[in-house]
Write a structure and sequence with these properties.
mainly beta, 3-stranded antiparallel β-sheet, two-stranded antiparallel ribbon, 0% helix, elongated
Length: 61
């Protein structure tokens, strides 16, 4: 019997309200999640985020 491997790719929009070291880090991103199933287990194989729209330069530059 051969093990079956399944790969799933999900693409969506990630919206966040966050801060980093006291500075706002809000934004919208195109999100790609890649999951792989081997047997009865799913594992996250990768995540990629790309900004949507204009990027704001860091404060102080």
């Amino acid at each position: 019997m051969t093990d079956s491997i399944t790969t799933e790719v999900t693409i969506g929009r990630h919206t966040q309200q966050a801060s980093y070291r006291g500075q706002p880090s809000d934004g919208q991103f195109r999100a790609t999640h890649i999951a792989v199933r081997a047997g009865d287990r799913w594992r996250l194989a990768g995540i990629q985020l790309s900004p949507i729209g204009a990027l704001r330069p860091p404060v102080g530059t």
